[in-house]
UniProtKB/TrEMBL annotation, chain B:
It holds the Pfam family CheR. Gene3D superfamilies: Vaccinia Virus protein VP39. GO terms for molecular function: S-adenosylmethionine-dependent methyltransferase activity. This is Protein-glutamate O-methyltransferase CheR. Residues 1-269 form the CheR-type methyltransferase domain. SUPFAM superfamilies: Chemotaxis receptor methyltransferase CheR, N-terminal domain (SSF47757), S-adenosyl-L-methionine-dependent methyltransferases (SSF53335). It comes from the Bacteria. SMART domains: MeTrc.
Amino acid sequence: MRRRCKLLIIGGSAGSLQVLINILPKIVLPIPFAIVVVVHRKNTYDTILEDLIALKTMIPVEYVEDKTVLAPGIIYVAPSDYHLLFEDKNTLSLDGSEKVNYSRPSIDVSFESAALIFKQELVAILLSGANADGTKGMQTIQEEGGVTIVQRPETAEIPYMPEYAIQNSNPDFIFTEDEIVNFVNSTIQ
Amino acid sequence: MIEDKELDSLINEVFEHYGFDFGNYSKASLKRRVDRLYQLDGFSHFYEFLYRIRSDEEYYKRLIEEVTVNVTEMFRDPSFYAVLRNEIVPLLATKPFVRVWHAGCSTGEEVFSMAILLKEAGLLHKALLYATDINASVLETAKKGVFPLRMMKLYSENYMASGGTEDFSSYYSANFNIAKFNTELSDKMVFSQHNLVSDTSFNEFDLILCRNVLIYFDNNLQSRVIQLFDDSLSLLGFLALGSKETIKYTGGSNKFVQLRKEKIWKKIK
């Protein structure tokens, strides 16, 4: 059964960049949903992460600024030093308030905001990391009817973040990289 | 998380009782901030929270303080300050008198950073820095020019990364856990309460800095504020915004030209 999705949101920390670079190029185009990536990144104002992802995938990558329009078929990456929020289904907004889980951007903040706006039309994936960020967000996504996927901890470079999410929420799926790709390509639309 | 309709009722109550209008704030961020305060102060029903805001003016002040974001640092985003130092400040030097407005100055870290740039360019003696915020309590902090000593390592690094070559510690005196900045800097500052949502222009400036304030406003309110800045800038004056802010979604963008990809716009008409 295929599932309607407007937003695929991916959170990750240490060890997640390689997974992103493996997964994103394998997504079959065109895609009817937007992709938002929230990863913990150094507090610098460069665009190395965006440029690297753009180099590896055919999906266009857009630099996120305040009130950037969210459209299907495009990858958006949360900029460093801001929390990324969803104003409505078509508009991103930024917030410079206190760090959450020692992080800005925080995955919890973006996941919770996405959950409240996209409800059942949201698929979230939590990848490798050394921090508990993301778990609270996964809980909210479940409450709002979205789909939650956690990277199989044995396959994660740093298993702490996916393990923490498995122990403290009840994710719909625990997937390897290949299973994630397969799910995105065959199940969501 | 609080409901949208609860947030709307709070916006209405605050406007009716205190005249403060959150109606054009960015909903996603405002909702998070209000929810955070609601949880933090342990209310069990939203109507209790509303009642407290309505009946207790001190609590209303707390709401304003907690809901508005006051995260700031000295020389935040050093590459921005390098452009300011190398390209904008030299242009201000030709003026007989330099007026700068920090709109949404929070606890004042960026105002002191600007004063240091002007001092190093030999312009501080003929400059006046107006610093405004809606939040009275952050202005009290800003006026004192006293910041936590533990922050000085980061600020000193930011200062050097922005092209500063002096001994940063010469700008303050350390005392226990605080750093008090020299009055030579604060003597050139004027602090006052000003609300970008409802107040009007009060002077003409050569440079307006409003960094990481517009992100909390919706496009309508952003347009209003850009118009206010347009009204408050001299011709060929400069407007500086935060590193992810833009004027492209506002009505006034045809009156400004952007300096390359920097977050600095020059008023051209």
